Amino acid sequence: MRTWTIAFLMGIAVAQQCSQTPNPAWLLLLPACLLAFVRANYWLRSLFVFILGFLWLFTTALLFSHHSFPQEFEGQELLLEGTIASIPKISSRSSRFDFTTQLDNKPYKFRLSWYKKHFRPPQAGERWRLLVKLKRPHGVMNPGGFDYERSLYRHGVSATGYVRSNDINERIITTDLILAPSVWVAKLRQSISNALRKELKGKQHQGLIEALAIGNRDKITASEWDILTRTGTIHLVAISGLHIGLVAGLVFFIIRFVVGRSKFLMRQLPVQIPAAAFAIMAAFFYAMLAGFSIPTQRAFLMVYVVMISLMQRRTIRSSNVIALSLLLILIFDPMSILDAGFWLSFGAVAVILFAVTGRLRAPASIFSWGKIQLVIAIGMLPMTLMFFQRISLSAPIANLFAVPLVSFVTVPATLLGAVTLDLSTELSGLLLHVATESLNILWFLLEWLNAQPWSIIETHVPVAWTLIPAAIGAVWLLMPRGFPTRWMAVTLFLPVILVTPQKPEIGELRLSLIDVGQGLSVFIQTRNHSLVFDAGPRYSESFDAGKNIVIPFIKSQGLLSLDALIVSHGDNDHSGGAKAILNQLNVNRVYTGANTKRWQHETAVACQAGDEWQWDGVSFKFLHPIKEQGMGGNNRSCVLQVSIGTHSILLPGDIETKAENELVARFKDQLKSDLLIAPHHGSKTSSSPVFIEHVAPQMVFVANGYRNRYRFPHQSVTQRYTDSEIAWFETAKLGAISVTMTAEGLAKPVFWRDKLLRYWHTR
Questions:
Q1: Is the per-residue pLDDT at 194 higher than 90?
Q2: Residue 334 sits in the same domain as residue 247
């Protein structure tokens, strides 16, 4: 069972690396593999199980591909009638929700934003008629970054878009009692959410209580998220496997106690049968409230397997419980391995099982419980570095106190408080008050731990191969006492910390135009130095390009600091992510075309024409602006030229024709550059013919967003470059674009959308 489960998992994992789905004819091999599995010997069966996993993944992928959004509908106004299928996420200026509907007689799920203030947002389970504009799933594509398209694919979202402001938008009053299960669950979660928000209004940690009750984490504040992630306690504010197991266990013992007190019931059936049945139902209901996330799926299936074995009076090994739960999840949802939660959830259980079984006493004492927390921290270290690039030294201490407090006080009080909301306002209020106060106590400890300078160690994104020795080292350290030379296992963690991606040589640079959507951010690295030119936009209160795109990119290059940050001017699409970069990375120098006081950084200075420096045989020089010129707005942008010998790269920010003409008048042929980052994203107010003639680039990179509202780059500009036989590359189509320049000139650029392409990505 365990060997076959691992083989099935590996088959699915390999299939996930494919850039496209195979021809459906290949799926005819599926019944043949099943037949071969039945007739083969034990070891050959593992091979056929691997192939079955590979084919099973693409069977489900091809089924979903029939619901991909037709390209011809992109950008059109569509009047759709459907159901709100999720609890809307509400911000200060919009609400976002999933919308299930039909288009051309095919079912779809769309993720919509409604930009409208001061109105009652839609509620889960309601039916609406909406005028919408949609586009196929499309996200930024960068090394080390979050794959938004994968997330949408994973959740069955066929397109994203927004609701057009129009009087035709209306709620449809319906008397239908039959709802799809997913909609019924969303409606139930919405009603509980509304009741909790009303009861908890004005109290602390409302978002945490709601997360524990129904798995909705949208209301957790940014500061709460930060403390939870830095102290390694984020798992406690979701409906996790620990909580589902706790609920199932409590129900099991309560029902067994009640049934055991009735002689009549005892004569009808063994006491463990109703106890196990009710425990399964309780676990299912609680997992359902969490939307059946991966940890809750795993926990429910484990509860199910254990309770069924109790009902049948059979003993089942713990490792087989995990293997069977894993296999069932992979069969019902092979896409689940795309979630970090899948690996973290099963990894944590496997680590505990490996380290505890037969070697540690049950955690009856705080010493034993603390030992388990240390075991988890060591065993999960490779995964923690891979997914989060940080080592939380405070996590074992935080979890030592947080796990029992949240599990035995906060969660029971929260659940009982939610259940009694409609029964007794006084009782539910008291229970929710207990839950809130327990979180206040926990928060005092977490804030103290987070404030300690030793609390966390930030790391770069590990080079892939270094995770293998780190995993071996973790297993080695967790071997039983007396295992030879366990102390040497520590050396196997060194590569994951010390090995970084290859750096440019002296007299060489690597430039990457980071894909930040409709905005600009450029990363330049020499042998021993690095800088970022512009930081991309700030999209919302919870998401900005600096924190969520640029910093992960920098970490993927093996860096945790910058020698310089240049913010060309103050527009949001160039400066929105700057504060996040300054807050989270050590930046030695800041240059800006905006007000220097805006960045609250002691080294911030205005960029001035003529300022120059050298790093590792590479020259950097500002060509613009001149202080006495008095230009403003886009034409005030910093213009940077980076050179190696006779070869150059020009970064002009958002300058327009006026500044371009001034540069041509002052520098003439000195503007000549091999690579040009398109001024102002290729707008029609820039890239004038005389400017292009004097720069005369071999290639142009343009930073633009997919189907952006400005329609950059303008057709007249692209035609201008095409007529001049200049190669033209857009981030909206190609993702991040990287190129190396040496004294011999530019190398062939690397397009990260092509390099990272998987079958779920939009082409």
A1: no
A2: yes
Query: Is residue 504 assigned to a domain?
Result: no
How far is the C-alpha of 222 from the C-alpha of 51, rounded, in Å?
A: 43
Q: Which two tokens stand for residue 577?
A: 């992510």
191 within domain boundaries? no
Average pLDDT over residues 416-424: 85
What is the pTM assigned to this prediction? 0.90
Provide the token pair at 396: 């074992």
Q: What is the pLDDT of residues 351-408, one digit of tens each?
A: 888 876 655 454 455 556 677 788 888 888 999 899 888 888 998 899 888 888 988 8
The helix or strand, by DSSP H or E, that contains position 7, with its residue range, turns out to be helix 2-15
Same domain, 491 and 558: no
What average pLDDT does the chain have?
88
Rounded Cα–Cα distance for residues 455 and 393 (Å): 5
DSSP 320: H
- Residues 166 and 256 grouped into a single domain: no
Non-local (6+) Cβ contacts of 603 within 8 A are: 587, 588, 589, 590
Which helix (DSSP H) or strand (DSSP E) does residue 190 occupy?
helix 181-199
Domain annotation covers residue 187 = no
Whether the pLDDT of residue 245 is over 90: the answer is: no
- Predicted local distance difference test score (pLDDT) of residue 662: 94
DSSP letter for each residue of 367-382: HHHHHHHHHHHHHTHH
Given this model, what pLDDT does residue 360 score? 47
**What 3-state DSSP class applies to 116?**
coil
The amino acid at 691: F
Task: Give the integer Cα–Cα distance in Å for 522 and 513.
Answer: 5
| Rg (the chain; Cα; Å) | 29
Quote the domain boundaries for residue 494.
Answer: 464-498
How many other CB atoms sit within 10 Å of the CB of residue 39? Answer: 9
- Taking the C-alpha atoms of 396, 400, 402 and 407 in order, what is their torsion angle to the nearest 10 degrees? 120
**Which of the pair, 416 or 175, is modelled with greater confidence?**
416
Measure CA of the first residue to CA of the last residue in the chain; give whole Å: 39
CB 654 within 8 A of CB 571: yes
Pair (434, 476) in one structural domain = no
DSSP secondary structure string for all residues of 48-112:
HHHHHHHHHHHHHHHHHHTTPPPGGGTT-EEEEEEEE-SPPEE-SS-EEEEEEEEETTEEEEEEE
* Count of positions (residues) in the chain: 763
If asked whether residues 419 and 554 sit together in one domain, one would say no
Looking at the structure, tell me whether residues 312 and 389 fall in a common domain.
yes
- For every residue of 221-286, DSSP letters joined together read -HHHHHHHHHTT-GGGGS--HHHHHHHHHHHHHHHHHHHHT-HHHHHHS-THHHHHHHHHHHHHHH
- Pick from 65, 88, 118: which residue ends a domain? 65
Domain count, the chain: 5
Q: What is the pLDDT of residues 211-240, one digit of tens each?
A: 888 888 888 888 888 898 889 888 777 666
Task: State whether 518 and 453 are in the same domain.
Answer: no
Same domain, 562 and 436: no
pLDDT at 246: 81
541 in any annotated domain: yes
Q: Which of the two residues, 365 and 635, has the higher pLDDT score?
A: 635
Mean pLDDT calculated for residue range 36-45:
79
3-state SS of 630-674 is CCCHHHHCCEEEEEECCEEEEECCCCCHHHHHHHHHHHHHHHCCC
Residue 606 is classified by DSSP as E
Give Cα separations from 518 to 146, 264, 682, 710 (angstroms). 17, 71, 12, 9
